[in-house]
Structure formats: structure tokens, C-alpha cells
Amino acid sequence: MKKLTNSALWVLYLSIFALISCNDPTVIGSDLLSGDQLDIEFIDTLTLKAKTVPNDSLVVWRTGTNSVILSNFALGDFQDPIFGRTVSSIYTQFFTNTSRPNFDPTKHTLDSVVLLVPLNASLSYGNLDETYTVEVYEMSDVLNAKSTYTNFDSFAVNPAPLATHSFIPNFTDSITVMEPSSDTVREVRLPAHLRIKLDNAAMSRILSMDSLTINVDSNFVKSFKGLWLKPASQNKGMLSLNMRSSTQTNLRFYYTESGTKKKSYDFHSFSGNPIVLHQQNYYGGSIAGDFLNTPNSAQNDSLIFLQGLNGVNFELEIPYAEDLNGIIINKAELILPILSLPGDIADITPVAQMYATEYVSDTSLIVIDDIYLPIRNLSTDDFGKYFGGKAGADDIQYKISLSAHMQKMIAGKTTKTLRFTVNNRTESPTRVVLGGPSHSEFPAKLRISYTKY
Fold first, then answer.
1. Residue that is last in its domain, among 234, 259, 281
2. Which residues fall within 8 angstroms of residue 258, CB to CB, at 6 or more apart?
3. Do 435 and 414 share a domain, yes or no?
4. In the chain, at which end, N or C, are there fewer CB atoms within 10 A of the end residue's CB?
5. In this predicted model, which residue has the larger pLDDT, 406 or 14?
6. In whole angstroms, what is the distance from residue 431 CA to residue 288 CA?
7. pLDDT tens digits, residue range 304-340?
8. Residues with Cβ within 8 Å of residue 183, at least 6 apart in sequence
9. Residue 354 is part of which domain span?
10. Are residues 48 and 75 in the same domain?
11. Which strands form 49-53's sheet, in the order they lie side by side?
12. Are 155 and 139 spatial neighbours (Cβ–Cβ below 8 Å)?
């Protein structure tokens, strides 16, 4: 055990004495009790204006500086009773893995080809108890890893599908399959995943590729350009597929060697392989569409709509912020009530996390200080603790801290309009309806506590 030196004991003694002295009510704050206390006031009637706005295109693949490499991809034709129709499909490449195949058409016979992809339960959304149908096509266009792709990019495919597969999503139950082992087959229990059997005749040519084609990625992708996964059913939900699972996402070839030996080989999708989400929204005839098409009407201020993927954002304007000049913001908290509209999907969860940006030009946005400062001093995982903008299934409102940004706005150091977006929107199909500033029962409000100076 360490011992305190005489000097350390003396310092400790002085500290204790000072602590005791400072707790004496005749010492602490005696010069403030004469009337100079801080005068804290509150206001929640500041004018707010809001409108629902469309998103720009969504970058879904980019390498180099500011790279965008997604792991989870939305798949479905989501018939949303409030937001209209959201359609998402996936273009993907597969390459040979680290151990190159040694296919020999004179010795090997193709038994089957199966696409294996795990479903992501946390990012799948809406009604997931329905039957979903997926079609798989072979691509006839090549994806270029050096290109930048957005959600609006699409590519040519061969007209005949390689597979049409219908299923009810299973996120938890493991699957028992027969897998090759030591030249024979054995029963294997695997985690829950999606299995789609592809057309043997169309895929058999891969077994006949020469080594220069199949073992050189740039040559292989010219011969087998990839797959397109397309929704073929309309549902009240959207699936999420983990297209980059190192252990479960495979294009698996089952084959027989010399008539008796059972074998398999997996083609993978690596981080350097482009995978492109093709995603579009159709708002015609929807409630969200009515508000989106009349952004400056009085009605538009009563409801606010927010949606992931390439869905809608909303903007909030605080037009008279400068009227608060001469105060110090103690706390500014935006309250956004969560609403459930008639005819909506039962028990649908709201957006888990939103964030706010400010305009620095007509087209350029940056995150506000209430987000930037926690990220700068802590980590990107911590901004929600301090900024707010979080909601669970049972929450009735979002609480969002705008304290630092409001102080800048009052001082005229920033614009008066904020833009709100779903966090991780490139992988998240979630959405929410909010009470706007003019909602008759549940209006959005900005609660501010401040001190005059």
C-alpha cells in the first residue's frame, strides 16, 4: 500500500478545510444573495414553420475519399397506406473466394446453384408476416467498382429469370440442410437465412469456364456480370438483406465429382465489389404526397413526414429567432409529437433516430453544432445522447436539443432553416408522421429556457 508523504498530508488537510469552509452558508454565494441571482425565463410560443421536402439522389456506392460501401440493402415493393409506394431492388456481383475453384467439366456435374442471403431483422420494416416473392435475373451490364452509383441507376439484365421464390420471412429459426462433407453429405444446422435455388441450365456454363476466366476477377465479371434481385410481390413491409455477410452471403455451387463425391464451392461478394441499391418512391394519391406537392400551403404546416432510404425529409424554419437577441440560451428543446393516422399499419415503429443539418449554401448542408460537438469530443455513437431525436416503439414524441444552434441563430451566424433526415437512411426504410407547428391538438414546439443579460 502506498503511503502519503508529509507534504501530501498537509495538502489533503488544507483541501478538507477548504471544503468544510465552502459549505458554510455564510461564505458560499454571500455576495449574490443581495439580488444578483440569475433570472431564468421560459418561452414555448416562438413561431415555427415546417414543410415536407423531397430528397436528392442517394449515393449507394462510391470508393476512395468519402467512400460509400453498404452492407444491408432494402428489398421489396412496399405499399405504404400513408407514404405511397416504395420499390427497392439490388444489383450485385459475386467473385471467387480466396481458394480458387478447380472446376473440370469432364469430371464435375452440377447438382444445383443456391443463393444464400441472411435477412436483417432490425432493418426489415412493416408487416413481415406476409408472403414475399423475389425474382432473380442475370445481369448483362457490368458494374464498375471505380464508378459512383446512386439509387436511380439501373442496369440491363437477361429477360428470363433465374428464379422466382416465394416465402414468409424467417428471422430466428435455424435451417437444417444437407451439405457436402468429406466427399459425402451430412445434415447441418445453419442460422436463419434466405435460400433461392437458381436455374441450373443457365448457371452450368460457369463450371465450364477456363482457369484464366474463372480465376481472374476482371475476366470472370465480364463473363458472369452479377445478379439482380427484384421484388415480385406487393407487401405492407420492406425486407433488409445483408449482402456482405462473410459467412452467410454466398452463391453456392453444389456439384458431384467423378460420379460419387459430393462437393460445393462458394462465390462471395467482398467490400471491393460494387452492390447497387435501386430505389424509388411513388407518392401519387398518398397523404404524404398531398403535403409534398403543396409545400407552402397552410395545410402543409399541420403534418410533417419523414422517411428513410430516398424518401422525404422535412424542413423547419424559425423566422423570428433574432427577436430573442440579448439572451443566453440555457436550453432549447424541439418537441415533435409522433402521430398515428387513420388506416396506418398497426404497431408500425417510428424512425429510431433523426438528425439535423443547416444550409451553408443553396445546395450544401452540414450537421449543426448540437450534433457536431458531441461527435467531435466523443464519438459518432454518442450524438443521440446529447442531441436527442431518438424514439422507441412506445414513445409519443421526439425531444431534440437545439441549444447551441439557437444561440448561433439568434446572433445571426447561421440560416434560420434546419433540415431533418433519417439517420442511416441509406439502409433504413423507416418513416414517421409528426405533428406540425399548426396541428390543432399536437403541435410541434420549441421550448427555450434563457437568461437575459
1. 281
2. 107
3. yes
4. N
5. 406
6. 11
7. 999 999 999 999 999 999 999 889 999 999 999 999 9
8. 257, 260, 261, 262, 263
9. 41-54+312-452
10. no
11. 49-53, 313-317, 417-422, 354-359, 365-367
12. yes
